[in-house]
Specification:
By secondary structure, the chain is α+β, with helices and mostly antiparallel strands. It contains 5 helices and 7 strands. It has a 7-stranded mixed beta sheet. Strand 6 and strand 7 form a beta hairpin.
Amino acid sequence: MVEKAVLENVQDLVNLRILLMKELGELNGNEELFQKATEEYFTANINNPNSYTAILKVDGEIVSAGSIVFFIRPPSPGNLQGKEAYVMNMYTAFDHRKHGYSSAILKHLMQYGQKSGVNRIWLNASSAGKSLYQKHGFIEYGSEMEYKFEKNKTAKLLIEMGLKES
């Protein structure tokens, strides 16, 4: 079952992030400094209302995690509120892959994003992760992938504001 990460989960999140960076070949500096910075990040943001981290445990061990962060951009015609979300830090421990854990985390984050009022979620995917995101409706745009929730949300908002959709 997917659940919200809490402060007690920080060290497990740090460990998963280190595994992710090693797998991507991006951990090429001082691992100790990276570990400390990652621990500080999760400790500071685990209860931040603009950030949400989901975890999945197997036999009490966190084996999969992912995060979503929210931010406000200037309004656009397709997003009058400007609120968007970015999915990051998606990772499932190697020995626990092919069980649907990443899908469960991603679905949970997407539902959380939709409930939070975003109509666009985007991310940068590794080559290994692209098929997961495509399976859940994300579309590639250059180096990014995005998912847009129902388009009639925009039309409904325009109607509520007394405007017409062009």
